[in-house]
Amino acid sequence: MSGSTPAGAPESPAGTVLFVAGAGRSGSTVLSRTLGLHPDVFAPGELRYVWDQGVLRDRPCGCGTEFSRCDFWQEVGAAAFGGWSKDVASRAVTLRRAVDRVRHVPALVAPRGRFRDHVLEYTELLSRLDAALRTVSGASVIVDTSKEPSTAYLMRHVPGIDLRLLHLVRSSQGVCFSWSRSVQRQDRAGALMARHPVARTAVEWDVYNTMVDGLRRLVRPSMLLRYEDFISRPGEVIAQVLQLSGSSARSLLEPDGRSVDLPLSHSVAGNPMRFRSGPERLQLDERWRTEMPRSAHAAVLAITGPIMVRYGYPLRRGASVATVG
Ligand SMILES: [Zn+2]
């Protein structure tokens, strides 16, 4: 449950990666950017996409500058690899496709043979990237919001990191509604974020969350967090997540206790919210309650209902998410 506090999380050693796992559109961008306000924490966004979105396609960093012109990422590339190389990035994308897919999760528990060779080669690149991010940002904790369960399983094999797992869950109705809507991309003019039909997202929500449930038993310390609890009790939840990452306690909220003041970020990929800066009120997007067609809502609950109950979500459309203390 969301109340599963990270009891016994050791103090912050160098090399901590707080990996946020779960379904896409679960609110990880606003959560990680909030955590990034802590001086010991750096939030580079969805790091698994640095090779293709950053190096190969030169999409804009969260600071608004193209990847190849962002000083921060150029410093990271220099520290990690003596400079970014399209050959290394292409190889990394090939390796990622070979090892980092949902269907590979069973093999990732204990990799063997040629698959293991690919895991070792890819995780060596991730290890160098992680160390460089730490050096250039000066942070001791890197928050990676890649979320894919296969990436989360893969992270267990990255040498030289101390992995902490944050399983972020958002109600299936909110996730499915978000994936069904048209959202403008900020990094490609005229392009829209991917859209998926609700039934497909609902099945994915079940699969992803069940896989991450399994990983929480393998990674210690770990924590299950409902996005809705972060929004309703941000101060308390931030304190728990900082404890999970081994960071010192610190208030990251504005005096109203409900909002954050975000600087420009150097995030490499993720939700368009990564480009915003300035005051940001932490609030739930619950448009699904009024805008989601009845039939779609029924389909989502038919597919995800049993797992929703496991996370303590009410299934009636009008019911608010009970706060788990
Ligand atoms: Zn930047």
Describe this structure in words.
- The chain contains 13 helices and seven strands.
- The chain has a five-stranded parallel sheet with strand order 2-3-1-4-5, with helices on both faces. A two-stranded antiparallel ribbon has the order 6-7.
- The relative contact order is 0.21.
- The N and C termini lie close together (9 Å).
- It has helices at residues 28-35, 50-56, 71-81, 86-99, 105-109, 113-137, 149-155, 172-180, 198-216, 227-232, 234-245, 288-291, 294-310; strands at residues 16-21, 41-45, 141-147, 162-169, 222-226, 259-262, 278-281.
- It has a single domain, classed as P-loop containing nucleotide triphosphate hydrolases (Rossmann fold), CATH 3.40.50.300.
- With 325 residues, the chain is of the alpha/beta class.
- The structure holds zinc ion.
- Zinc ion (ZN) binds next to helix 3.
What's the number of structural domains? Answer: 1
Radius of gyration: 19 Å
Query: If you consult CATH, what is the topology?
Result: Rossmann fold
Quantity of strands, as a count: 7
The CATH superfamily is known as P-loop containing nucleotide triphosphate hydrolases
Unreliable sequence segments = 1-13
- Sheet with most strands: strand arrangement: 2-3-1-4-5
Specify the number of helices: 13
Task: Report the top-level CATH class.
Answer: Alpha Beta
Q: Mean of residue pLDDT?
A: 92
Distance N terminus to C terminus? 9 Å
| Known CATH architecture | 3-Layer(aba) Sandwich
Q: Approximately how much beta-strand content do the residues carry?
A: 5-15%
- Secondary-structure element string: EHEHHHHHEHEHHEHHEEHH
Summarize the amount of helix as a percent range. Answer: 40-55%
